[in-house]
Amino acid sequence: MNFTPQQLTAFLHLARSGSFGEAARLHGVSQPALSRTIQQMEAALGRRLFDRTTRSVVPTPTGLELRRIAEALVAEFDSAADDLARFVEGRSGRVAVAALPSIAAVLLPPAIARFREGRPDVEIEVRDGLSGSVLEAVSGGGADLGLTIRPPHPQAALVYRSLLSDEFGLVCRPGDAPGGEGPLPWSVFQGRPFIAMAAASSVRQMTDAAFLQAGLAVPPLYGCAFLGTVGHMVATGLGVTALPRLTLSLLGPFDLAWRRLERPVMRRSMGIVTRAGRSPAPAVLEFLAQLERQAKSLR
């Protein structure tokens, strides 16, 4: 026989209260409806569950054994239902984020901190890497979402949503900056040692494109993989570089100057990548909303 959770709950109300009237009230049904439920259960078992008198309703030995089993089953069902409700409300689950390190360091820490204030039971995993690995992690299902620059070519398996854009500027020691306060042309790098990022990085690809558009031949030096290394080199006087403004906090505890670059103006569009045609988990949707709020505060 298979008893439903509703039948077992009705049975427990009667076993605990010892009254059909009280059990019907607790269960939210009429007394005849409750009586029919108990009769159906007794018929399925082929045994009486309660001894009835004019004064009381007392479980039989079979009823006592069923009560023991029903208490455990209903408690487990209620716990599972609560777990499901928490998941549907985005209060439990897991969020896996793949991100460019420069974007992750700016957007993720404050977004995660605020998200966890209301959802401390959601597990968050961060995988930082270059843009190509971010796209692969999302398209392959290893990450729920990616934080990266706009993909150079549309990809049918992915959906990109822009969060904010970040302009490039000259980064140098304050004493090495040209006079004035306005924007500078990319020709400012001619004749200066240019500290470049690694060839596979999104920053390097954009600085190479800027030099090409400006018709400049500026040799890239060092090919640093980490922004902290670039910051130390600039602060030491080994050269100057070009970086998006939001990366400045990642260069280290140095007093460095930043001046907007133009001719051409280079903007790095940063956003969220998700899989096309897939419904994100509720916790992922809530985290996406938090990221959008965080990005709005940086615009």
From TrEMBL:
PROSITE patterns: HTH_LYSR. One of its GO terms (molecular function) is DNA binding. One of its GO terms (cellular component) is cytosol. Residues 1-60 form the HTH lysR-type domain. It comes from Methylobacterium variabile. This is HTH lysR-type domain-containing protein. Keywords: DNA-binding, Transcription, Transcription regulation. The keyword DNA-binding applies.
